[in-house]
Amino acid sequence: MxxxxxxxxxxxxxxxxxxxxxxxLFFSVxxxxxVPYTGTLVVGVLLLSGTVLFLGIPYFFxxxxxxxxxxxxxFTFKKEHRLFYYSVRWLVSFGCHVLLLGIPxxxxxxxxxxxxxxxxxxxxxxxxxxxxxxSIEI
Length: 138
Fold this sequence. Notes:
The protein is mainly alpha-helical.
């Protein structure tokens, strides 16, 4: 059974929502501590938030981000290579978003909603990395 468009939409949107909530949480703590914002601090918060959600959680909790768990999806990376693939996938995504000033986010939303399969840019770069969680055992 293949991954449906609605499963991809649910998982991607929930991951993006959790990413923005985690960023806001970090900035709320920094504001409470009266830490002045700098460009380096902002990039650091973005990297830390993304590392926790898109690298740490899938690595330690069964090849799934929180959004993928909700959508019933799972990465299909082999166990011995998964940290490498998670890292490269996250850094490529983050690099594109920062260097291109958020244009990939707009492209991803367009692809997610109007593409027949609901594939986003990362799915094209890292093809066939998701499947139904119930269909594999890693």
